[in-house]
Amino acid sequence: MKLDDIFCGLPYGFSSFDKIKDRLIDCRAKARLPENAKTVISVLFPTTSARNTTKTQTFRGMP
Asked: What is the sign, positive or negative, of the torsion defined by CA atoms of 25, 27, 29, 34?
């Protein structure tokens, strides 16, 4: 199975965990990360319609 099949055509990418490990916020979820994590997988999920764009931007604090 290919990654494109797993992510159903959504944009995705990979990054080194070392680049972000010192920037993690302190929370309980942080404790669930593997001790020897090496890679971060990012997937972008689009909004369901153009009407949701304004709500999403406002929610994220964007003008």
From this structure: positive
**What is the rounded distance in angstroms from the CA atom of residue 63 to the CA atom of residue 53?**
11
pTM for the full predicted model: 0.53
In whole angstroms, how far apart are CA 28 and each of 20, 24, 45, 59? 17, 11, 24, 23
* Cβ(15)–Cβ(43) below 8 Å: no
Sequential pLDDT tens for the chain (63 residues): 787 788 787 888 899 999 999 999 999 999 999 989 999 988 888 876 555 555 444 444 444
Residue with tokens 């990418």: 13
